Amino acid sequence: MKKLKLSLLLSVVAFAVIFFAACNSEDNTPTNEISEITPEIASKLQAAYFETSSAKVTTFMGEKGVAVEDMFFTLAQIDELGEGSQIPNTEHYRTTNLVTGLPRVITVSVSPDLGTLGSNALDKTISMLNNLGAQLTYQRVSFGGKGKSKADIEVTEFYELESGGYITLGRAAGFPTRRGDPAKGFGINSRWFELSIAPTANELAGTMAHEIGHCIGFRHTDYQTRESCGQNVNEGSAGVGAIHIDGTPTGSDNTSIMQSCGPAITFNNNDKNAMLTLY
């Protein structure tokens, strides 16, 4: 849940959005030359089941690349999306790369720019994730560390206005790396805080959990239809970088925290099963 449809949100107390990530030192190839979405870039993203109509070139977390849905990829990361295999039309998917070295503690930090709300929400997110009983556990550390003191996943702030009746709440910096590390982090859109649908700590925690999900290898559960966003988009059957997770159901799962858009702010049973299957 990276986006919220404003026409729907105005009639509800609030919604939350989340999930995807990846980045590694081998993948941080400078992409300063890119200035527009080329047909080749669009084709690679579409083959990985991303809806590219609103994709754009931008700078995020110090790198230049492409923002698509609630994800950000450098050109090197987009090239990695070409790895995968065909999948059935079912729910709950993972990326080709996953976090390795289990059991493992993932450190997480949050920028002071997100204030007390961001700080409280991260604490709730970590508690929610650790309560799943997976072999990946999470520990909060100070923001801005260097070297070995730097968090595995950093939560930063960005500001982006609404577009086309939607607002992007969170944006993850790719997927897990080939080395088996989580994506380096994600951003939270502080524009959200200014609106009448401004989040509570619980709702923001749901969005953070969604984005951490992306960082450790989860795809949107409805990426083939984007029905939670009121769309019907299926990019085909290539199945690139979207592998079905054994034991998760077929059909729609509109209470999953990993929906593209939607109100879920906690993990449902299918989300828990998916997490425990992978980790």
From TrEMBL:
Q: Which GO terms describe its molecular function?
A: metallopeptidase activity
Q: What are the UniProt keywords, alphabetically?
A: Signal
Q: Quote the Pfam families the UniProt record gives.
A: Peptidase_M57
Q: Which domain of life is it from?
A: Bacteria
Residues spanning the signal sequence? 1-21
Name it.
Dual-action HEIGH metallo-peptidase
Species assigned in the record: Tenacibaculum caenipelagi
